[in-house]
Write a structure and sequence with these properties.
The protein is an alpha+beta fold. The chain is about 25% helix and about 15% strand. Strands 1, 2, 3, 4, 5, 6, 7, 8 and 9 form a nine-stranded antiparallel beta sheet that branches. The N terminus is likely disordered.
Length: about 475
């Protein structure tokens, strides 16, 4: 690449340029040879040759012969030499001096075809779907004036989610009109494993839309547990929209699209962005504390387990419209990273109840032990191996009394909102689904006395009911609720 002297170098750099021995350049002559490649090249070469011959170049015999600073002329000449090279590129594949062939420009590499996760179904995607890399949790307050506008909001959300999850070309509009898409993903929207999961909060069932009699049986506003420090600005909401995809640009694209198309009927209340760390070295991914998270889950490929633990069932005490939905919990849990870093690993393991390196239960001492092993407490009634106040043991004590409230479907993400002096603002967007909200509430109450309490502070989130799935092209979110 030819060097050039910029305006900022006109002092010392310019003086250095003046002191060098002049060099004879033959760029105009080289243009003529290159111009034979095409009529376009010929026309451009003629124009540049006229321009270049009007410049005053330093000669071998006489040195600099023009007025002004020679460095500026050298800069102009570098630009023109670049144009000469550009002509060769336009010609493409032309043999230049010495017989060297200039290769054709490489075709632009297309983005690998991204995966499509089906939008239609009895249940919403994004629940039993294996977690994607990136997520945005978007809580909104509904501003629709009446039930009709609320219905239209759900129709709009459905139409946008249906398009975004399938991908395609946005509608064409005149260049002078408002664009139909934000363009983050380019001219064609790629699906990129996108899922959108919509839930309703208890506040939507107030007296605004006449829906109070249709509220899910256990749906309530999240109230603080003993050690919570809930920020009202980061809690609750009429609607929760969970946006997950394989890449960050896809979730942001969907976020902007949704907010743009629904601005007249809802407004943003709070949001939290999350990521899933890769498996290191294998197995379940780790959280910001360095421990594997989400190991204990029901089998999402087993319809019987999902019906038992996750999906609301017909004639189960829930409104008829709710069948196929599920209770959706989001808890924004701040991690006190600096304090945790001072705790010895052996103590960290007893706090969690698992080995840090492997994720295996405490009885498995090898670093390469599998995280698929189940904890066993029957031979450890006093908690000598797995402490009684460890996180996993309180979450599921494995007793007959706690068995009905020990199984939830975890699908969490890690967040990082640093910098936030004087402490890192990093933590866990804890996410879980369960057929009964009381299952989670009972589990969380057991965790009030866990050894992890000094190192975490729940800051926000809420309880929601994830709507049943959109079954076909004629269906839309919450149709059974609003009609």
């Amino acid at each position: 690449m030819a060097s050039r002297v910029t305006g900022g170098d006109a002092g010392a750099g310019g003086a250095a340029a003046c002191s060098r021995a002049p060099v004879r350049l033959s760029a105009p002559d080289r243009l003529t040879e290159t111009a034979h490649a095409s009529p376009y090249c010929c026309h451009l070469a003629h124009h540049l040759r006229e321009t270049m011959t009007k410049e005053r170049y330093p000669s071998v015999d006489g040195g600099w012969s023009g007025g002004g600073c020679p460095a500026s002329a050298l800069a102009r000449r570098s630009l023109l030499q670049g144009a000469t090279a550009g002509l060769a590129g336009v010609a493409g594949g032309i043999a230049l001096g010495g017989g060297t062939a200039l290769a054709e420009p490489a075709a632009e590499t297309k983005r690998t075809q991204s995966r499509v996760i089906p939008f239609h179904g009895a249940h919403q995607a994004g629940i039993v779907t294996p977690p994607q890399q990136d997520a945005i949790f978007l809580s909104c307050d509904v501003t629709a004036a009446d039930r009709a506008e609320l219905t239209e909001l759900f129709r709009t959300l459905t139409a946008r989610a249906r398009f975004l999850t399938a991908g395609g070309r946005p509608p064409k509009v005149p260049p002078t009109s408002t664009p139909s898409d934000n363009g983050i993903l380019g001219p064609t929207v790629v699906p990129d494993g996108l899922t959108m999961t919509v839930g309703v909060g208890a506040s939507l069932f107030d007296d605004r839309y006449g829906l109070s009699a249709r509220k899910p049986a256990q749906l309530v506003t999240m109230t603080p547990f003993l050690h919570d420090d809930l920020d009202p600005a980061l809690s609750q909401g009429d609607l929760l929209i969970q946006i997950c995809a394989d890449h960050r640009d896809t979730t942001v694209h969907a976020l902007i699209d949704i907010l743009t198309h629904t601005a007249s009927a809802m407004k943003l209340r709070w949001r939290i962005d999350g990521q899933r760390n890769p498996e290191r070295p294998v197995g379940v991914r780790r959280d910001w504390f360095g421990f594997k998270d989400g190991i204990s889950n029901p089998d999402t490929t087993d319809p019987a387990q999902m019906a038992q633990w996750v999906w609301a069932q017909p004639k189960s005490g829930e409104p008829a419209w709710a069948a196929g939905g599920t209770y959706h919990v989001v808890r924004i849990v701040h991690f006190h990273i600096e304090a945790w870093q001072k705790v010895p690993v052996a103590q960290q393991e007893r706090i969690f109840g698992r080995r840090k390196a492997s994720g295996a239960p405490m009885y498995a001492v090898g670093e390469n032990a599998t995280d698929l092993l189940d904890p066993i407490y029957t031979n450890d009634p006093q908690g000598l191996i797995t402490p009684l106040n460890s996180h996993i043991r309180l979450a599921n004590p494995q007793t007959p009394q706690t068995a009905p409230t020990s199984t939830i479907l975890r699908r969490s993400y890690d967040y990082d909102r640093s910098p936030n002096p004087p402490e890192l603002d990093m933590g866990h967007a804890f996410v879980c689904y369960q057929r009964e909200l009381n299952t989670y509430i009972a589990m969380q109450n057991r965790l009030e006395d866990e050894a992890l309490v000094p190192f975490i502070t729940p800051k926000g989130g809420g309880y929601f009911f994830a709507l049943p799935g959109v079954r076909d092209e004629n269906d839309y979110y919450a149709r059974g609720l609003v009609t």
